[in-house]
Amino acid sequence: MQAVPITTTPRVQRIGLTGGIGSGKSTVAGMLADCGAVVIDADAISRQLTAPGGAAMAAIAAQFGAQAITADGAMDRDAMRVLVFDDSAARLRLEAIIHPLVSAETVRQSALAERSGSRCIVLDIPLLVESGRWRHQLDSVLVVDCTEETQVARVVARHAGWTPRDVQKVIVGQASRAARCAAADACIYNEGLSLQALRLVVTKVAQRFGL
To answer: Which end of the chain, N or C, is surrounded by fewer C-beta atoms within 10 Å?
Structure first.
């Protein structure tokens, strides 16, 4: 009898990508996509859920009232940002609405990517370390890091109307740089790098994930 070769399908790699506001995480996510990864963006999912007609909107309106809703029926992100950074109980109520929906959609998109043959899925999760619920679903965690001064400068330059104090409030509400780096399997220090130099670093890291 002729032996039949046994073939195995390489297991998909699930990489958690995170970093503080203004770290350059979204830029790194785009570069990983260019390397062949499927990127699932938790922030983008959250924005869809809180857009007009989004799955989270009925619960948000019921929980926070008309002041949380814009004229076109979306969540008022500026108003909610002010509210949740001044009121931790409000933040927890909002997270209790949005996080389960984001998780469910992330699982759905991950399964779809795996069925389509993807071998590396990058989950872009801003609050990966803070949530504590993602780590067991991941093979590795990749952190994008930079100084707080750089975070503030980047966000103020990018977002009209944001002040350094606004950015500092966000930073204080996120995990510390030390906590993120301690949770990392790999860390990209995105400080003073040109886009070309950053791309070289990302390409080398991507090779570790089979890209």
So the answer is: N
Residues 6+ apart with CB under 8 A from 157: none
Q: What is the DSSP letter of 75?
A: B
Q: pTM for this structure?
A: 0.85
Buried b (16+ CB within 10 A) or exposed e, 81-94: eebbeeeeebbebb
Residue range 155-178: mean pLDDT, rounded: 90
State the maximum Cα–Cα separation within the chain, in Å, rounded to a whole number.
75
d(CA 109, CA 95): 20
Which bin fits 72, alpha (ψ -120 to 50), beta or left (φ > 0)?
alpha
Instruction: Answer yes or no: are the C-beta atoms of 9 and 142 closer than 8 Å.
Output: no
Q: Where are the beta strands (DSSP E) in 38-103?
A: 38-41
Q: Given the structure tokens 């803070």, which residue do they identify?
A: 130
